[in-house]
C-alpha cells in the first residue's frame, strides 16, 4: 500500500537525486566551517584565505557554466557523478597536503568549502545546473515546483545537521587529546567517503537520450547550442541574477562580520543563529508550490523579495542583537521561499533539451558578482560606514525584484497556461457579476 505521506509525483529517480542533494548539503554544512578554520590552523593569513575563496568562487562559476553547456550534450547524470568524485579528490588533497598553492588548486577544482549559505538548501555550485535540469526531466509541469521545494527542504535540513558535524574536531580534541588539525583531517576523510557515495547514489538515475534536435541544427555545419527564444530569456535572467549576486555578495560572510562588529556577538551566538535559520527555512520550501499556484511564479518571487527587502533594510536600525537576529530569520525565510519557485520557473520557460545549459549560463552572473561583494563590502564597512553594505544589498534586491517583474510578467510557464489556473487567478468583481 502506498503511504499517504508520499507525494504522487515522487519516483525512484527523484528519490535518488534528493539523496544526492542531501549528501552534498551535509558536506557543505560542515566544510563551510572546517575549511577556513583548518587553513588558519595551518598558519595561513586572512589575505590568503580570501584569495583561496575568491579563486574558488570564480572557478565554481566557470565550472558551473561549462557543466551547464556540456551536460545537455554529454549527459547531466555523468557530470553529477564526476563532480561528486572531484569533491572526494579535493578532500584527499586537503587531508594530505599543507601547501597553500596545492590547496588553492584543489579547492578551486573541487569547490571545497564553497556553499550557498544558511537556508539555501545546497542549491549552489557547479552541481546546480545539471541537477536542476535532471530534476525537471523526472517530474511533470504541474508538480515541478513541488519537487524543487522538497529537494531544497532535504538540503536545508541536512545542511543544518552538517553544521553540527563541524564540532567533531573539538570533540576529538576534548575526549582523545588529539590536535584540532588531526580532527579536521578526520572530517576530510569522512568527506572522501561521502563524495564517493554521492557519485554512487546517482548512477542508477535514468536519463533521456539527447540526440541532434531541430534547435541544435546546423547552418553550414556549425552547431547552435541554444534557440533564439531561450537566449532572449537567458539575457533577462542574467541581468536580474547579476543584481541579485551583488546583494548576495554583501550578505555572505559580511553579515557575520556585521553582527560581530555591531552587537559584539561571537561564534556560538552566530552558529546558533544560522542553525535556527536552517531549521526555520526548511518548512518554507514545502509551501513554495502552494504560493506559486495561488499567486503565479513571477508574482511569488517579486512579492517575497520585496517584503524581505523591508526586513533587511530595518536590521541596521535595531538597537539590540535579539531584534536584529529575529528580523534576519524572518528575512531569510521570505527570501528562501522564492528559491524553488525561481528554479522551477526557469525550467518551465526554456526548452527541455536546453535546460542544463540555461541553468549554467543564467547563474554565471550571480556567482561572479557575488564573489566581488565581500571585498567591496569589507572596504565600505571599514572606510565608509558599518551598516552601508546591508542597505546597499537591500537596494540591489529591490532593483532585482522590479526587473524580475518587468522582464517576466508576460512569460508564463506551462502549468500557468491552463484554464483552471487562469480562472484561479481571476479576481471577482465586487458586485458578484462576471
Q: In words, what does this structure look like?
A:
By secondary structure, this protein is mostly helical. The chain has one domain: Growth Hormone, Chain: A. It has 17 helices and two strands. It has a two-stranded antiparallel sheet with strand order 1-2. It is globular, with a radius of gyration of 22 Å. The relative contact order is 0.14.
Rg from alpha-carbon coordinates: 22 Å
Distance between the termini: 45 Å
Supply the CATH class. Answer: Mainly Alpha
Q: Pick out the low-confidence regions.
A: 211-224, 424-434
CATH architecture: Up-down Bundle
C-alpha geometry = globular
Q: How many alpha or pi helices?
A: 17
Count the beta strands.
Answer: 2
Domain module tally: 1
Q: Give the full name of the CATH homologous superfamily.
A: MFS general substrate transporter like domains
> What would the average pLDDT be, to the nearest integer?
80
Residues in helix, %: over 70%
Strand order of the largest sheet: 1-2
Instruction: Look up the CATH topology.
Output: Growth Hormone, Chain: A
Q: Major beta sheet, specifics? A: 2 strands, antiparallel
Question: What's the gist of this structure?
Answer:
With 434 residues, this protein is an all-alpha fold.
Amino acid at each position: 500500500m502506498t503511504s499517504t505521506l508520499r507525494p504522487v509525483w515522487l519516483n525512484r529517480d527523484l528519490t535518488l537525486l534528493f539523496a544526492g542533494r542531501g549528501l552534498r548539503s551535509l558536506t557543505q554544512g560542515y566544510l563551510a566551517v572546517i575549511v577556513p578554520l583548518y587553513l588558519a590552523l595551518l598558519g595561513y593569513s586572512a589575505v590568503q584565505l580570501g584569495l583561496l575563496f575568491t579563486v574558488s568562487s570564480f572557478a565554481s562559476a566557470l565550472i558551473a557554466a561549462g557543466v551547464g553547456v556540456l551536460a545537455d550534450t554529454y549527459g547531466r547524470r555523468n557530470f553529477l557523478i564526476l563532480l561528486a568524485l572531484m569533491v572526494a579528490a579535493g578532500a584527499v588533497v586537503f587531508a594530505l597536503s599543507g601547501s597553500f598553492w596545492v590547496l588553492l588548486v584543489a579547492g578551486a577544482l573541487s569547490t571545497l568549502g564553497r556553499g550557498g549559505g544558511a537556508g539555501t538548501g545546497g542549491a549552489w555550485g557547479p552541481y546546480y545546473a545539471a541537477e536542476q535540469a535532471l530534476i525537471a526531466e523526472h517530474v511533470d509541469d504541474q508538480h515541478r515546483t513541488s519537487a524543487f521545494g522538497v529537494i531544497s527542504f532535504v538540503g536545508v535540513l541536512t545542511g543544518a545537521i552538517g553544521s553540527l558535524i563541524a564540532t567533531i574536531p573539538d570533540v576529538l580534541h576534548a575526549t582523545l587529546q588529539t590536535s584540532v588539525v588531526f580532527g579536521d583531517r578526520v572530517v576530510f576523510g569522512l568527506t572522501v567517503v561521502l563524495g564517493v557515495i554521492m557519485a554512487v547514489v546517482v548512477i542508477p538515475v535514468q536519463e533521456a537520450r539527447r540526440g541532434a534536435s531541430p534547435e541544435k541544427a546546423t547552418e553550414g555545419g556549425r552547431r547552435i547550442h541554444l534557440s533564439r527564444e531561450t537566449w532572449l530569456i537567458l539575457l533577462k535572467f542574467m541581468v536580474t541574477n547579476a543584481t541579485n549576486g551583488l546583494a548576495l555578495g554583501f550578505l555572505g560572510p559580511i553579515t557575520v562580520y556585521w553582527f560581530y562588529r555591531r552587537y559584539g556577538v561571537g561564534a556560538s551566538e552566530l552558529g546558533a543563529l544560522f542553525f535556527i535559520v536552517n531549521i526555520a527555512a526548511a518548512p518554507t520550501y514545502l509551501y513554495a508550490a502552494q504560493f506559486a499556484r495561488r499567486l503565479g511564479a513571477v508574482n511569488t518571487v517579486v512579492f517575497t523579495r520585496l517584503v524581505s527587502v523591508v526586513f533587511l533594510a530595518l536590521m541596521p536600525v535595531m538597537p539590540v542583537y535579539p531584534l536584529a537576529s529575529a528580523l534576519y530569520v524572518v528575512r531569510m525565510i521570505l527570501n528562501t521561499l522564492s528559491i524553488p519557485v525561481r528554479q522551477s520557473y526557469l525550467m518551465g520557460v526554456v526548452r527541455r533539451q536546453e535546460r542544463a545549459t540555461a541553468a549554467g549560463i543564467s547563474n554565471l552572473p550571480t556567482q561572479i558578482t557575488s564573489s566581488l561583494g565581500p571585498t567591496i563590502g569589507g572596504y565600505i564597512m571599514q572606510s565608509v560606514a558599518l551598516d552601508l553594505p546591508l542597505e546597499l544589498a537591500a537596494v540591489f534586491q529591490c532593483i532585482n525584484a522590479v526587473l524580475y517583474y518587468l522582464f517576466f510578467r508576460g512569460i508564463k510557464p506551462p502549468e500557468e497556461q491552463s484554464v483552471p489556473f487562469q480562472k484561479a487567478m481571476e479576481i471577482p468583481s465586487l458586485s458578484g457579476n462576471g
